[in-house]
Amino acid sequence: MTRVVRLSELEASPHANVFPEAEPKTVLLSLEAGERVASHTHPGRDVVLHLLDGAVELDLDDETRALESGDVVRFEGEREISPAATEPSTALIVLARRTDG
């Protein structure tokens, strides 16, 4: 089945599931300047974050990455993640289940 979703029509405050109950889990994240997502993990998943617009300081474990619009970052979901927007920002995040093999 093919589904098309217009990101501009999703209510993301701070996040919305793009394709609810479908894999891989895909989330639209919108943060206001100064807003932060509390530190958390996504065990058993690989995470890809594409910053569509804005600027984010992404805490991954004990390191911080400064991301700008257009940047894409990939990491293992076992890492502690906490994004903080330094300006209004929107990101598309894909959380894929890790498979053995």
Automatic annotation (TrEMBL):
Q: Where is the Cupin type-2 domain?
A: 28-80
Matching InterPro entries: Cupin_2, RmlC-like_jellyroll, RmlC_Cupin_sf
Keywords on record: Plasmid
This protein's record includes keyword Signal? no
Protein name in the entry: Cupin domain-containing protein
- Organism of origin is Halobellus limi
